[in-house]
Design a protein that fits this description.
By secondary structure, the chain is mainly β. It has one domain: Jelly Rolls (Sandwich). It is built from no helices and twelve strands. It has strands at residues 4-8, 11-12, 19-20, 35-41, 46-52, 57-63, 66-72, 75-81, 88-92, 97-102, 107-113, 122-124. The strands form three sheets. The chain has a five-stranded antiparallel β-sheet, with no helix packed on it. It has a five-stranded antiparallel β-sheet with strand order 8-7-10-5-12, with no helix packed on it. Strand 7 (66-72) and strand 8 form a beta hairpin.
């Protein structure tokens, strides 16, 4: 889907604690830095639909497992991410709808956004407004 990129990320295993790479300014998908934040989602809970009009999202699941659904022009893309089974960075450019569901327990997502949060640049709608069978 145009505007969506998955980037494989490096994991370095160490008996004293592992290293999980996330992003360098030279990486594809880096579009400046506005803010970084963590969000959680409970198992079987769904957040969304949201469409950012200016913000580029760079999402990494650092704990648990999360299913992301991206929607544009009657086309859906489903991606499940976790540090254990599919450790990748999901980059979502502006003007795409996104929703996500907690698959695992203790789900934590990190977003590195290119701009600071501004509630006026995002559109939120109820889950029922875009039909998707979870």
């Amino acid at each position: 889907m145009d505007g969506v990129n998955l980037t494989s990320l490096k994991q370095i295993y160490n008996p004293n604690g592992d290293i999980f790479h996330l992003m360098k300014k030279s990486d594809n998908g880096f579009d400046g830095f506005g803010e970084a934040y963590f969000t959680t989602i409970n198992q079987n809970s769904i957040k969304g639909w949201k469409k950012h009009t200016k913000m580029t999202l760079n999402l990494v699941v650092i704990n648990g497992e999360v299913e992301f659904i991206i929607y544009d022009d009657n086309q859906f893309l489903s991606i499940k991410l976790s540090p254990k089974d599919n450790y990748q960075r999901l980059t979502i450019e502006p003007n795409l709808w996104v929703s996500f569901r907690g698959v695992g327990s203790d789900n934590i997502i990190l977003n590195i956004a290119n701009i600071e949060h501004n509630p006026d640049e995002a559109i939120n709608i109820d889950l029922e407004e875009i039909e998707y069978e979870w």
